[in-house]
Amino acid sequence: MKILLLDTWSVNIGNKFIEKGAKEWIRSALSNPEITEVSGYAYQALVNDRESVLTKLGIEGRKFLFSKEKSREYKKRKIFRKLKNVKTVGDLIDLSDYDLAVLPGCVLYHHVLGKYKSVLERFEKEGIPLVILGGGAGSYSKVDVEYVKRVLGKKNVKGMISRNPRAYRMYEDFFDECEQGIDAAFFISDWYQPPPSEEPFIAVTYDKKPEPSICDEDPGLMRVRLNHNPFKKPFSSTFLNILRKMLNRGTGRYTMRGKNKFVSDSPKDYLFIYGNADATYSDRVHACVASLVYGNEVYFDHETVRSGVFDAMFGESISRKKVTLDSEKLEEKKEQAIEKLKKIVETSC
Questions:
Q1: Helix or strand run (H / E) with residue 38
Q2: Which of 127, 251, 281, 327 is most buried, by the most CB atoms less than 10 A from its CB?
Q3: Could you give the C-alpha distances from 33 to 23, 30, 191, 254, in angstroms and in order?
């Protein structure tokens, strides 16, 4: 079976954990799948290019952006409609035929579906079924849920396995096949097993706020300070930074302070650290997921709807307490997720 795996945003290293984990999930569920990965990065870079955006918006669009008559949410919807077809990754997808497309991760809102909308329309036209794997969202507002249902309602979506209970509740009656599952990044250790480190350390990944005092509870251990989005957005400009601020999407990340800073464009480099850290302290969901998968202790320190990935695995919130994940429980959850993907593919695709 020829599988098209749609990558989302690899500049954020946590998304790469999702995508590589999804690849292993597919390999475990299907017999000898031929998996091709296509990135959405090229589209995002072009959308972030100042000239492309200004040209697409036009003079009237720019006036509308800075006007005071309409709400931020209203402007957000209108602007993304203007930008959605600047460029797509469709040309690459046209180069081959596929039996199934898979879109993994935090994709159920406009930030991702907007860039892939024309691709989804192509799947519908050509009869290529789509499965959303470990699906969730960064927002479950009424506006976002309505947008998701509008975009996916007429597409060839055969099913979804959610990554958290909230996503499942929101969409269980919308998709013909909908299952409660886990985040795809929980399969990341099947993709890569890092070599052991020769010295102990803790991992500290705070992109949104300064390190808290709890990180001092491991005295004497070296701290490795990581950033999951060190390269920001490609082709960024002053205009785009202003646009993102107006749309409440943010521009900055907390700047790492202190010694032993670490950034890389390789997910394996990050997985070496998370796989060997005595403990991981982070406001990043997938820093903690990666550490948990390798059997290490984590302290998750952020309030976000994305933390539902831990609810699905632990049955409760793990925010602001130290936890580890039982390896037998992890394997049991993964086996259940594998069987659910098999079921969707066998019955619907």
A1: strand 34-38
A2: 281
A3: 10, 6, 15, 40
- List the 201-205 sheet strands across, edge first: 261-262, 222-226, 201-205, 279-282, 297-300, 322-323
> Which residue is associated with the tokens 């919130």?
317
Which tens digits make up the pLDDT trace of 105-141?
999 988 788 777 778 888 888 889 999 999 999 999 9
The CATH number of 2-46+83-186+331-348 is: 3.40.50.2300
Domain positions in the chain are 2-46+83-186+331-348, 189-237+247-326
Give me 143's structure tokens.
């506006």
In the predicted structure, residue 313 carries a pLDDT above the cut 90: yes
What is the C-alpha separation between 222 and 325, in angstroms, rounded?
23
Do the domains spanning 2-46+83-186+331-348 and 189-237+247-326 agree at the CATH topology level? Answer: yes
Query: How far is residue 339's CA from residue 251's CA, in Å, rounded to a whole number?
Result: 40
Beta strands 2-6 and 201-205: pairing type?
unpaired
Side-chain half-sphere exposure of 41, counting CA atoms within 13 A: 16
Reply yes or no on domain 189-237+247-326 having CATH 3.40.50. Answer: yes
